[in-house]
């Protein structure tokens, strides 16, 4: 069956009182704001709020050994620079990722000391690569 030009076009009629439509919001803004709040990459390490990745690390640490002779404490984290820029990652089929490094403090207690309160034997602080 052959249709005419107007039947193919399907004319749309507007019975509304307002002729204009609403502006479409930038839907990606919510996700970007949430991601920036989660990482807090722009903020200095000592001025980060207890939310996002910083709060996750603080909730897990300190990790104490079973014997109670050592404790691993979270100090801070930092995100490194990505290996490639966005365009090069798209061309090579790579993931655009930045290395995550966490600064932790290992506190070793003197296990041979008498009493319940053991003195600190050694304290070491080191930056550890956790992934991208």
Automatic annotation (TrEMBL):
<dbReference type="GO" id="GO:0003677">
    <property type="term" value="F:DNA binding"/>
</dbReference>
<dbReference type="Pfam" id="PF04563">
    <property type="entry name" value="RNA_pol_Rpb2_1"/>
</dbReference>
<feature type="domain" description="RNA polymerase beta subunit protrusion">
    <location>
        <begin position="27"/>
        <end position="132"/>
    </location>
</feature>
<keyword id="KW-0548">Nucleotidyltransferase</keyword>
<dbReference type="GO" id="GO:0006351">
    <property type="term" value="P:DNA-templated transcription"/>
</dbReference>
<keyword id="KW-0804">Transcription</keyword>
<dbReference type="GO" id="GO:0003899">
    <property type="term" value="F:DNA-directed RNA polymerase activity"/>
</dbReference>
<protein>
    <recommendedName>
        <fullName>DNA-directed RNA polymerase</fullName>
        <ecNumber>2.7.7.6</ecNumber>
    </recommendedName>
</protein>
<dbReference type="InterPro" id="IPR007644">
    <property type="entry name" value="RNA_pol_bsu_protrusion"/>
</dbReference>
<keyword id="KW-0240">DNA-directed RNA polymerase</keyword>
<dbReference type="GO" id="GO:0000428">
    <property type="term" value="C:DNA-directed RNA polymerase complex"/>
</dbReference>
<keyword id="KW-0808">Transferase</keyword>
């Amino acid at each position: 069956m052959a249709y005419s030009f107007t039947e193919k076009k399907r004319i749309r009629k507007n019975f509304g009182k307002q002729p204009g439509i609403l502006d479409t919001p930038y839907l990606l803004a919510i996700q970007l704001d949430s991601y920036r709040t989660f990482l807090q990459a722009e903020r200095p390490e000592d001025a980060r709020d207890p939310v996002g990745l910083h709060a996750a690390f603080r909730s897990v640490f300190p990790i104490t050994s079973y014997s109670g002779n050592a404790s691993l404490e979270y100090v801070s984290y930092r995100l490194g620079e990505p290996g490639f820029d966005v365009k090069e990652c798209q061309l090579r089929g790579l993931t655009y990722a930045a290395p995550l490094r966490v600064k932790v403090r290992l506190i070793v207690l003197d296990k041979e000391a008498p009493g319940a309160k053991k003195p600190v034997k050694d304290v070491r602080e080191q930056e550890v690569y956790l992934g991208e």
